[in-house]
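Researcher: Good morning. I'm working through a list of sequences from a screen, and I'd like to move beyond sequence-only analysis. For each chain I'm collecting a predicted structure so we can compare shapes side by side. This is the next one on the list. No need for commentary yet; just the structure.
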Amino acid sequence: MSKTLVTTPAALAALSLATALATALATAPAAAEPPPLKAHARPPGQNAGAASSPLMRPGRSARYWTPGKQAKAKAVDLPLSATGGGAAGGAAERRSVPGAKRLTPEGDANGYARVRRPYTADDSSRVTGRLFFVNGSGRDDSCTASVVRSASRLLVITAAHCVYSSPDGSGEGRWHTHFAFVPAYDGRADTARQREPYGRWGGRRAWKPDAYTGRTGGDWNSVYDVALVEVGGRNRTLQDTVGAFTPLRNEGGRFTISTAGYPGVLGRRPYDGRDQLWCLGRTQQAREEDAEADMLAARLAGTDARTGRMETYNCHLAKGHSGGPWVVRGSSDLVGVLSSGKEDGEPDGNSVATALNLEGYGAIVHEADPQGVYDSLSLDATGPDGPVRRGGTATVTATVTMHGLMAAAQVPVTVTLPPGASLTSVNGASCRRGDRRAECTIDVIHPGRPVRLTAKLAVGRDAGAALPVTMHVTSTRLDPAQRDNSAVVRLRTAG
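Model: Good morning. Structure tokens for this chain:
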């Protein structure tokens, strides 16, 4: 089984410690079991919660991250895989993404290419930036983050291991401090204004799912590895200044995505944190065998480990890109943040992202953005104005609308008929149709862009005087009002 890699120096050190511990445990007597992982277990069906950091001073954090400190962040190189082979000879011999799997135009052996400068010229590269912080061990570190739509207009999204971790040798997690987000960061610029074209935004508070413990071997690459950071305000908000991605609720699956970020291995140009790099990939559901820790955390929390994460074999992550956005190609739909992947040097490199899932993102977004409206779905149904003839046909239409800030994937809609009527077709979504019930799935729905489903039905000659047709859209617990998720069209019959 391939190893996985989390992409901050503190986590790499913890990974080495965990490997040593695992070796010791393997040779210990059977009775000498390790202590249980603190995965914040919840009974099945109980809603996930959020944890927040202490309040911080944005101005102090921004001042801490001088150009000199930025340049020295993330000085620890990636570990070489114990099973990868061929990597000890240096960077030129490192095997990663095979040529046939590279989709990025002019992509390198990892599948990445440089983003065209200036980063201010493109919506995606402008929204993406480098997130600096002091980790739980007190060392200067960085990840990638991006601006995500919110009512506060001050939120950036990243991986949970970028805001919270267990210091070396410690079993208890600690919040990182001194967050500073630099959108469109350009570490090779000649002037301060070019290096930080939109300034340095100090962090005020961070949020993570309370089920995220930060312990290597527990949930550091799980469905909970997602976080939000609120930055301090100015005359204009961060979102007004650079724009934002639209969060797209999903549980993983197949997308064509582009991801950008700041891999930060000092001395390994262009992977030294000074360039924004990007990669094009096709995703699939993350496989169970790559997520043993995730499986354990999911079992303890009463969730399904096969959902909530996705992977690509077209891009091989590098340290510093953690938290980088996975955006549906050709759109502003954010479907996940980079979390983990195989160690450097393995021949079939990959990247794994935490989807903007209900257990992770859904757990933190309402706490971080209490004024925001998320996953607010409504359904309106219409039918013929006059009576329908027995033995004839009728058409009813369901209009499904998403309100607020979030888009959603794989939204279920059902159409149910009473006795005396039967379905002949349903259009507008992918449907499994029976005689009197259709179970449909809307691929993607966006705020302000309604989706219409049209059902054609046959009216039996023995139909009653009234035929109630029920239509329902399923939303999640994020929906503030689910009373408008169902509608009934009452058809009157004649003849």
